[in-house]
Amino acid sequence: MKRFNKKLKIIIVLIVIIFIAFDENQSKVEANDCATFDSSSNVLFIPCVTLGSYRLWVKLQSDTLGLLLTDYGFESNGTTDSNCSTFDPTENLLHVPCVKFQKKVYWVDLNLTSNDPILLEVKDYGETSVPSTKDEQIKFVVGDNQTIQEVIDECPINREDIENDRSGSNTCIVQVPSNHKKEFYSLVRNSQGDFVDHRNVNVIFQDNPQGKFKYDLFEDCNDTSGWKAGTGSTISINEGKCHLTATEDQQVVFARFVFDQPIDLHQYQGVMIDLEYVKGQVLPQIQFIDSSGKSEHRYDALHLPKGQRTIDRVFFGLPLHGNINYSNIKEIRIRGLRASSYSGSLNLDFDNIYFVSTFYCNVASIRFDDDHIAQYLYINHLEKRGWKSAFVVYTNAINGPNKISLNQLQELYEKGHNIINHGEAHADPRKCDYEATYEDFWNGRNWLYEHGFSKYLNMYAHPFVASNMYLRELLLETHTMSIDPQLFGFPIVKVGLTNPDFNIPEDAQKRIKSHFGGIYQFVFHRIENEDNFEKALEFIEENFSYIITPQEILEHLPNDIYPLTNVSNN
After folding, report:
1. pLDDT by residue (tens digit) across 340-394?
2. Which DSSP state fits 10?
3. Coil, strand, or helix at residue 429?
4. Which fold has domain 362-565?
5. I need a surface site. Which of 161, 248, 268, 279 has the fewest CB within 10 A?
6. Domain 215-357 architecture
7. How far from 72 is each of 87, 154, 176, 438, 546, CA to CA, in Å?
8. How many whole angstroms separate alpha carbon 45 and alpha carbon 39?
9. What residues does each domain of the chain span?
């Protein structure tokens, strides 16, 4: 009887110690998984321990003395009784029925050897027949006083799954409550900035579980209230759009919007705006100014035939460059710079300005242009990481010298890579009339359809990053989305990588490391240096939490903003 009372006292002390130290703002875990042992950090994570009427999760750090309790929390949801560990106070024994380690699953018995600090040692263990499946998941909920990153760092790494499937297995779910701040997080960098691999983690925002991108309308140009025309400029409403004009003696036409209180744009990954202007007359820009007076601007448009009027929906990724404080923006300007050799009046229409939320982490999309054979030969560098990409092809080059063959293209297609129309002959739209534009688009599209590549016909990539008014109408008529950001607002930041060095441009590196998140589209053409190509992929792997394809991006677009995404591929 005295021995039983001693053991009962030990478990009571254990519960009391945990309750005294417990913080209500700590993350809670929903345990539906086996315990896991991370051999790199020597941490045993047990998602469910039954202590009397309570259920806890615990982390035990292995050291020379045994297994030391280093972290714990209350389980917010029940788990299967067969996987929940139990403590026997009469034997001072913690029985863990299911521990994943490498490719096997074990049971383990641990003796409690000290209660100050709480220390356990392995008494016995053995292999179990419990299957190890990727459907088993551990769920954490972010607390009020926690950052998303702090909770991600708590997740155990399922090293077996990562080593065999570099794309991750989502064995740990982090749920972000609806009222929690939307903030940057990383699955490849911890809160100290050290490289880790938490791509077995799936972050779910409870107010947007489907992950649809969010578009907050800032300006729809019903009137000009809030806008002030710049020196020499006037602003008015013309056919439902904000119309800017300036006389021939001005070098720039612009309007400015000054906020009553500075706004925080750091929660967004981009801004989208409709622009209408004549190519060769003005160069449209967007400009942000912070409270200190620092500013930065960006110009981004497709190449167009000179003198042709265009209506573009342009996506500008944030930050534009990364030199100002986007958490404290006091002013936005829409500007049109006079094009060289143009001497007439300046005119620029704008409408529908949206602040855009895509991903709150860095996401990469990899794109190969123009059918080069090395893109196929080196695809193993992506496949060993579990990555899919997009191959942008102009069809009359297929089977050509140093080009991808039809059989190779079919192999890539069957493996899940996107095969996207780039025209039949890579014709420059700036030099094409209606008939030539029509033939290049449709001949490329029909060739892909006739050869079995029908899955991704709802996308198109512009040759020479160029367009014309005929091509724009063709894409609208066929419900085809441009995967360049300057025509229909495809929400990516485009990063061209130049053969043979494939160095990441400094401006892109600065933006990537600015902790905004968003999607970066990396574009490769010729690949003549395999080692440098691999180094570029290593940079992507170490700085981007997810790798997705253009088709996956389409699935996140809201149909009310992008009606082109609700289309048939035929």
Report:
1. 989 999 999 999 999 999 999 999 999 999 999 999 999 999 999 999 999 999 9
2. H
3. helix
4. TIM Barrel (3.20.20)
5. 248
6. Sandwich (2.60)
7. 15, 10, 20, 64, 29
8. 11
9. 1-209, 215-357, 362-565
